[in-house]
Design goal:
six-stranded mixed sheet, mainly beta, 19 strands, rod-shaped
Length: 241
């Protein structure tokens, strides 16, 4: 993450491009620079302080000596032809994240203030160990955690199923009828699959947990031969032959 702090005395005017790179120095963990000339429009690349060529997520905060004026704003806009992509007040309690592209500009306006500090937290989307790669690693880790393979459970009497991930095959092999009670639907992921197969002469019946229903409003389904059950987010979806 890049931490950039820009200081101006008098405020940002919202119209003067800053083309000359200011002098940066490391102060309390921030790459800090004071803008000595009028400033109002900043290049998205911030004079080489962010990874070149990559879009990034921006969190902006403006600190002023007096209460923040409601006219204050930060604007993200495209290059020519200019179009506003985002505009908001980056106050001290701001939690907004904004996507900034290398071709964009940052336009900042604050009514005159003795001292204004613009704090920018920047997380690049591309590159090794940056936001994009970490999101991909997180996604793959979640997939691996859920990719538990196929499991088989065999019952010879009534039973209650726990929650499951991935695919679970249940075989009911008994001479007696029985009840298989499903877990509370909310703990079963939407991509989890349950199959129930009747092997012996006894017929199993699936029962929903209290408060849950099968599609169509039923609370139980008998399995003549085999059935497939999934959580559709609102009810149990099932297909049986």
């Amino acid at each position: 993450m890049n931490k950039i702090k820009l200081i101006t005395r008098g405020g940002f005017d919202g119209q003067t491009p800053v083309t000359e790179k200011p002098v940066f120095k490391l102060v309390e963990g921030w790459n800090e620079a004071e803008l000595t000339a009028p400033a109002g429009v900043l290049p998205a690349g911030l004079w080489g302080q962010v990874p070149a060529g990559d879009p990034y997520m921006l969190h902006a905060c403006i600190l002023t000596t007096q209460p923040l004026d409601p006219q204050t704003f930060l604007e993200v806009r495209t290059g020519a032809p200019t179009q506003i992509r985002a505009q908001y007040t980056p106050s001290a309690d701001n939690t907004r994240l904004t996507l900034v592209r290398p071709s964009d500009e940052l336009r900042v306006f604050t009514p005159p203030q003795a001292l204004v500090k613009l704090e920018l937290l920047i997380e690049s989307i591309g590159g090794v160990n940056e936001l994009g790669s970490r999101l991909r690693e997180w996604s793959e880790a979640v997939f691996r955690a859920r990719d538990t393979g196929v499991r088989v459970a065999r019952f010879t009497a009534s039973a209650a199923l726990p929650g499951w991930l991935g695919t679970l095959h249940v075989i009911y092999d008994s001479v007696n009828v029985g009840t298989i009670t499903l877990p509370t639907r909310s703990i079963v992921p939407l991509d989890a699959v349950l199959t129930v197969t009747r092997k012996g002469p006894g017929m199993p019946t699936l029962h929903a947990a209290p408060g849950d229903l099968f599609a169509g409003g039923a609370i139980a389904q008998a399995i003549q031969r085999s059935g497939i059950i999934m959580n559709n987010g609102e009810q149990w979806t099932w297909v049986a032959d």
